[in-house]
Amino acid sequence: MGAERVDKQWKTKGLSGYSTGAILGTLNHYGAKVDEAGFKALAEKQYPLQIAGEWKLGWKGVGPFAPFPYAAADELMRRLFPERVTPAHLAEKIVTVLGRASELMDGKAGALEPALDDVEKLLGSLPPAGETRTLFTSELVSFLDRFATAFEQLPSALQARGHAALAQRTAALQESLFLDRKGVVTALLEAQAGARDDGLAKLTALAAGAPDRTIFTRYWALDALSQLEAIDALKAHGLALFDDAAKEDRWPLADTVIHLLARHLEGSPTLKGDPAFVEGVISRFEEAHRRVGHHGH
């Protein structure tokens, strides 16, 4: 491994043109003691963000080498586990989908379908549901942060522009990537496409508490009901969702829920006319602020 190392231009060039030995040599030079076999062992159950986090604990690289651990972990995983997609790689593909979709909706005949094909081919390599999948999804979300809203709204936007089949494909893609949204995105599309009662019924069922339903699935269903201005369903399930999130000590989620309900309360005479609901929102809003703090709402 000796003197072989990556040069300072790696950030401009990317790491694909450097040898594995140079990448490992650079890691070792700046404090991450690892060889190819050691990396493979680390990568059995971890993804680049977790691996890089361990390396950063003793990292001595500065300047262009300060961010090297993550880039190195991602590049090594792409090389040594080519059958496994990394979160960064998948995020790149999703951003390409968003770009192609934007071109299509701007009236340019585009390459959205091939871009979707590229992402869909990778779905089979995702970890199954469980701790490793949660780590993968968390890392993916961190890369998609700037694009999160555009990606969430993509199926509805495509459907509104008359691209129903592509809307269904992007909805299925979201539900495959984010397991807590299973059934939610397609039900929202159904409601928006004209079958409002059927879509609302599915979303209302998903928002209700049940042993086989995660609290996050319930939240995404409530969010979809919010988009549909489904006041009765919000009233029926919103406060219970807050309470269950609080019981699980998930205060950021509970805070998000109560702000959603408060927003609808401000604009709905129906909700304002129910004193018990109003009091329920106000008391929970205050409790959420005690737990989470005021953050600009």
Helix segment count?
17
CA-CA gap between termini: 54 Å
Q: Strand pairing plus helix content: what structural class?
A: mainly alpha
Subunit arrangement of the protein: single chain
In words, what does this structure look like?
The protein has helices at residues 10-13, 20-29, 36-43, 48-56, 68-80, 87-105, 112-122, 131-144, 148-160, 164-177, 184-192, 196-207, 215-227, 231-247, 251-267, 269-272, 275-292. It starts with 9 loop residues before the first helix and ends in a 5-residue tail after the last helix. Helix 13 runs parallel beside helix 15 (251-267). The chain is globular. It is 69% helix and 0% strand. By secondary structure, it is mainly alpha-helical.
SSE blueprint:
Elements: H1 10-13, H2 20-29, H3 36-43, H4 48-56, H5 68-80, H6 87-105, H7 112-122, H8 131-144, H9 148-160, H10 164-177, H11 184-192, H12 196-207, H13 215-227, H14 231-247, H15 251-267, H16 269-272, H17 275-292
Helix pairs in contact: 2-5, 4-5, 6-7, 6-8, 6-9, 7-10, 9-10, 10-11, 11-12, 12-13, 13-14, 13-15, 14-15, 15-17
